[in-house]
Amino acid sequence: MFNVADDPVELGLVASLARPGGNATGVSFLFNDLVGKHLGLLRELLPRAARIGLLVNPQNANADTLSKNATAAAASTGTEIIVFRASDAGAIEDAFAALTRQAADALIVGADGYFFRRRVQLAMLSARHAVPTVFTTRDYAEAGGLMSYGTSLPEAFRMTALYTTRILKGAKPADLPVVQSTKFDFVINVPTARALGLELPPTLLARADEVITVLPSPERRFRHFQFDGPARQVHPPAS
Question: What does the pLDDT read at residue 225?
Fold first, then answer.
């Protein structure tokens, strides 16, 4: 059983989505296909945005795909995509410094397990540099990020559990089509928008699955925030 954000066919995990073959099947999160949606949300919030950054992890196999998808999605809107790469805490800080120097109007953070673990750092740097940022899962918005849109991870894990149960009862993985996520969460953090001086369009708020109106306690925000060895320490923005 697998849970992947990339195309399992391109990864070589299965022969096809409908007929996996072999001895593997699972759930595809579709994160890499959502960068166009992220771009659209940012442009709805910031209609005049001309330059939008994309943060990817070069150690993730999806980095090139995300970059190509973002560039293709932006081509018809006249928006320039600036790609930034980071694979450790210090490089993330450097990316935000470069983002500011290059006057990007907003940022998309690509799907990546390491970024997910650094979500509080990413949320804090977005606030410190006053960069409206959209992320892939609700956990980022709960950590203080402005917006998130992506696959509902609880739903994806529920589907994984169902498939695992079927396999334990005798079903063959080769006979179980790869499940693609169909439930997506759109979350907006209003206190973060207010801190960035943004006015949220009513149409955007109306489409949100959840609107966060109160920031979580510091204990909850920093519970999973750990630094990687000698990386520079990041402090929360002054209130």
Answer: 41
DSSP-based three-state secondary structure for 174 = helix
| Alpha helices (H) along 46-152 | 63-75, 89-101, 113-117, 119-128, 138-142
Number of domains in the chain: 1
- Over the stretch 73-109, which tens digit does the pLDDT of each residue have? 999 888 999 999 999 999 999 999 999 999 999 999 9
Q: Confirm if 191 and 143 have CB atoms less than 8 A apart.
A: no
Task: Look at residue 27 and give its three-state secondary structure.
Answer: strand
* Domain extent for 53: 1-213
Classify the phi-psi angles of 215: left when phi > 0, otherwise alpha if psi is within -120 to 50, otherwise beta: beta
pTM > 0.85: yes or no: no
Q: What is the CATH number of the domain that holds 201?
A: 3.40.50.2300
